[in-house]
Amino acid sequence: MTDTASTGRALPHPDREEIRLEGVLHALSDPMRLRIVRELAAGEAELSCSQFELPVTKSTTTHHFRVLRESGVIRQVYRGTAKMNGLRRDDLDGLFPGLLDSLLAAAERQAGRGGTPG
């Protein structure tokens, strides 16, 4: 249920079998969290929290990352002092085939209409 980085700090993550559809959909229902996921999906590398420029406070940003992690959408690990974020695409695609791609495509279409931040 947790990952321990070289620093010994662990962050709780649900095991693949514990990821629930309603939790994933709830996590992705917020425009800021969807924006984070879109940025992670656009690149294949992990990104640190500080690489995201969101128009919200630091505490709100922390909350959004926590919701994404606790729902199983992202994996967060410490690398040195940086908290790195990666999309759990393999887990999500294995549990809910096509869901992530469909949501990302819909978010892209919506952004093209000016309907979502990011």
From TrEMBL:
It comes from the Bacteria. Keywords: DNA-binding, Transcription, Transcription regulation. GO terms for molecular function: DNA binding; DNA-binding transcription factor activity. This is Transcriptional regulator. Residues 13-107 form the HTH arsR-type domain. PROSITE patterns: HTH_ARSR_2 (PS50987). The keyword Ribosomal protein does not apply. CDD domains: HTH_ARSR. InterPro entries: ArsR-like_HTH, HTH_ArsR_DNA-bd_dom, HTH_MetalResp_TranReg, WH-like_DNA-bd_sf, WH_DNA-bd_sf.
